[in-house]
Amino acid sequence: MASEDLNIETESENGGKTLVFKLSGSLDLATSGTVREALAKVAKGGSHDLIVDLTHVDFLDSTGLGALIGAHRRAAEGGGQVRLVVAGGTIARLLNITGLVRVFAVYPTLKDALQERSRVTNAS
Amino acid sequence: MTQPVSREVATDVVELRIPAKAEWVSIARLAVSAVASRLQFSIEEIEDVKLAVAEALVSTIARGGSRIDIICESVADGLRIRVRDFGGPVQPEVVDVTNADESAAGSLGVFLIRALMDTVDYDAHDEGGADLVMFKRLPA
């Protein structure tokens, strides 16, 4: 799935219990609506254990954060959670500045996120 | 956003006019980061400026109008960026990032601009819109 300059790949893990969204490109005003819809669709379908891999996202703005916050809220309402994979850099700094590093479960790699280990609490 | 922005005379000016549409924001980001990279900003500071401008554009696009002017002015101690929209008169307190679907993100944009830039100022201009003027100080 591609929108403007964002690509979304989805994978199923943990025997189908966890959905992984691998994003690459810019998660911004032009693309956040597509991500929001994709995340809302799986929540509506009953999937509430999500991992959003931002490793290859090169730009994230408040509208992208809004899409992630919405997914976090829906997942929590469904008894699940949204884990983020953030390799560091600008996106890690953004999560720190906004305090969202304490809202989301943030992991440095997809493997860590799948195993729920090495959670990052200060992403700088 | 009432902090005064540097009034120093610009030595170099780069102006960009884009349609007030989401798909043009990335062009503005690229242009502004290119300007910032010609000055003595660190990579992290360039990223700050890029994100602040992107957030300003999110806000101005939400206000309406057909175009946005982005004016980058190199001054002795930093970079001053004016984001000018033509979305009609507005009171400062209603200038905000709007995101109807994810209201939690609504105030993040303004918060980020304030956090990432050294000073932020706001004013109406006589062509029927708003000026958001941001300043990033060069490292000493």
Low-confidence stretches of chain B: 94-101
The helix/strand class of chain A is alpha/beta
Which strand order do you get reading across the main beta sheet of chain B? 1-2-3-5-4
CATH topology of chain A: Transcription Regulator spoIIAA
Named CATH architecture of chain B: 2-Layer Sandwich
**How confident is the prediction overall: mean pLDDT of chain B?**
86
Q: Which outline of chain A best applies?
A: globular
Categorize the overall geometry of chain B: globular
CATH C-level class of chain A = Alpha Beta
CATH class of chain B: Alpha Beta
The rounded distance between the terminal residues' Cα atoms of chain A is: 30 Å
- Tell me what portion of residues of chain B adopts beta-strand conformation: 25-35%
How many DSSP helices of chain B?
Answer: 3
Write up this protein:
The complex is a heterodimer of chains A (124) and B (140). With 124 residues, chain A is an alpha/beta fold. Chain A has a single domain (6-113), classed as Transcription Regulator spoIIAA, CATH 3.30.750.24. Chain A has four helices and six strands. Chain A has a six-stranded mixed beta sheet. The longest helix of chain A is centred in the middle third of the chain and has 16 residues, at 62-77. The termini of chain A are far apart. Chain B is of the alpha+beta class and 140 residues long. Chain B has helices at 25-38, 43-63, 108-116, and strands at 12-19, 67-75, 78-85, 119-125, 129-137. The radius of gyration of chain B is 14 Å and the shape is globular. Chain B starts with 11 loop residues before the first strand and ends with a strand. The A-B interface holds A 4-5, 26, 28-30, 33, 36, 59, 61-63, 65-67, 69-70, 73, 90, 93-94, 97-98 and B 22-23, 25-26, 29, 44, 47, 50-51, 54-55, 57-58, 61, 97, 99, 101-102, 104-106, 108-109, 111-112, 115-116.
